[in-house]
Amino acid sequence: MIPKKIGTKTISVVTGKSLLNGWFERPSNEVPAPALESALNISKARVYMEKLARGAIGALCAACNDIQNVAQKTVLVSSCYFNSGSFSIIPAIFEKAMVVFSVRRLILPTWINNRDQFRQPSVELPENFITDCIVWSLFHGSNQTSSLKDVAYKGTTYQIRNQFFPYLLSELREWDTPHDLSGQIRTAQDTFVANWIKGRALSAEAQALLDAGRKVYQVFYKEWKNLNLRKFKIDYYDCGWYQIRNALLDAKVGLEELNAVKEAHTKLALKLRPKVYEYGFLDHQ
């Protein structure tokens, strides 16, 4: 077979000081917390992280710095994440952490780009790009933030709550929510992410995604008693996107609404993907 030239590939040398993984200082971890390997499961493997920073709202695994590693090593969770390369997300670094998640997940690995290294941005990021990234992250499959009751870990029982729940309690109180959650919804406080989104200017694409997601959440609460709550460890109102999406898929309800989220998510990705190159996170498309 005669080789055929399809183009030119430029390999850039990226030094340690400009790698995306060094974009901001990571907080020190001081508070013991369960180490998760997924949205629902405690890790049974070797654990590298068993403490969160004070005031943490979750953790991000962003191990390695090249495209070939992002598929298995870019995950959001509501407690510690067992793998190396994980760090606590505190409010002070929330926006940058979510941009890192998005940038790493927006670019699809290929045999051509899989060794490309992510860089720190070369420009000051526009506010609408940051907001778009955060909204996009909330509905990604690797957003495995969750809300879990009575998690036993090394002799202590923990309640894991989901600070990435995106909708205000004032909205939930107007929805058709199950009676056994009414007490929680009445007495709870809005999550960090719901407060972050509140009053923020959103692009048309981000707003469309949030609106589509809202319909999924509404179907979820309406169908609450028809779902396999135990299978997905659902006890609290603030369950995560992973729990909600999979509980609905398992029951084969809300499929039209879920598909609308998928379409809106894809549209926002198509808007964001070129910006990864434009803003210097990667050199060449």
Provide an overview of this structure:
It is a single chain. By secondary structure, the protein is α+β, with helices and mostly antiparallel strands. The protein has one domain (20-285). It has eight helices and nine strands. It has helices spanning 94-106, 127-138, 169-172, 182-187, 192-197, 204-222, 241-251, 255-278; strands spanning 31-32, 35-36, 51-52, 58-62, 74-77, 80-81, 86-89, 148-153, 156-160. The strands form four sheets. The protein has a three-stranded antiparallel beta sheet with strand order 5-4-7, with helices on one face. Strand 8 (148-153) and strand 9 (156-160) form a beta hairpin. Helix 2 runs parallel beside helix 6 (204-222) and helix 6 (204-222) packs antiparallel against helix 8. The chain is globular. The mean pLDDT is 94.
Could you write a compact summary of the structure shown?
The protein is of the alpha+beta class and 285 residues long. It has helices spanning 94-106, 127-138, 169-172, 182-187, 192-197, 204-222, 241-251, 255-278; strands spanning 31-32, 35-36, 51-52, 58-62, 74-77, 80-81, 86-89, 148-153, 156-160. The protein starts with 30 loop residues before the first strand and ends in a 7-residue tail after the last helix.
